[in-house]
Amino acid sequence: SGRRDDRRPVSRALRVVTALVLGGGAAGAACAHRPSPPPECRPTLAPRAAGPQVSDTAFDPAIASPAFTRGIGPVVLIDEVHHNYHTRDGRYAPFARLLERDGFVTRPLAEPWTRESLAGASVLVVANALAPRNIDFNWNLPTPSAFTADEIVFIRRWVEQGGSLLLIADHMPFPGAAAELAAAFGVRFRNGFATDRSCGADELLFTRADGTLADHPVTRGRRPGERIDAVRTFTGQAFQMAGEGRPLLTLGAGAMLLLPDTAWQFRDDTPREPAAGMLQGALLEVGQGRVAVFGEAAMFSAQVSGAERRPMGMNDPGAGQNPQFLLNVMRWLVRATGLE
Hints:
A hairpin with a 2-residue loop joins strand 14 (about 280-285) and strand 15. About 25% of the residues lie in helices and about 20% in strands. Helix 1 crosses helix 5. It starts with a helix and ends in a 7-residue tail after the last helix. The relative contact order is 0.18. By secondary structure, it is of the alpha/beta class.
């Protein structure tokens, strides 16, 4: 049919872009084995606490000037059809509550991606999707794509025609599951763990002062009170851009990327490579739409973990500007007044 013929050039183009972005994977893996590890890199990275990570139901930061009238703002759909580790009523409940207090309307999306299921939506949020092979904490290689080729073609077109995508993939195995979707937008996800030169840090701080946090309308906000000077992330991955885009969060000097075959299992001989200059946040303009990509998910949640209820995310004492940063990102995605 005519519709099928119309899709072929797009599919071919996406295959070319994906091949170019993912083509460095084998070479990158090989390079990860070549360099001798820095003397100070002794992988001690570990989960923050024993026990489950659950939403912090008490987290309720103030919003001085909401962007939209509550309940009638732009519609944000949070993907739940791809075995997502973060969902609207689960680990991303604080994310959804914060957006709703800014006037956004949030809804879970548990249906396949179609024009009908995305009708009326301004933003699609895809956070920590997984392929069936890696669910139930089967977080080891291989990490196949969570998305079909048809889904990737569809969402690329949806963005080109004016939709906005917030794509989030945390540490391994999540970058592997979302690599093909990211590649369709010229982004190369690295299926590992970002850390510091010691290979033990589970938090990273991006600041204006050291140049790791970019100056951009998203970090300036609409007024002085919305300016962002520091953003904290909690492990995550590192990624690169093959095409045009604007880095927001750039890993600084000494950053390392650990590439284990099983999540959270590190050895002295675990492959690793320098990650300085790689990214944990970036923005892209794609056709008439916009894309925000982040390599860490907890930064936009508010969780507590373990018996000691250790905070992680927007509720962490060292992440005080993360909530405003999230609001600025979302307002940029929908071209809110002052962040067009």
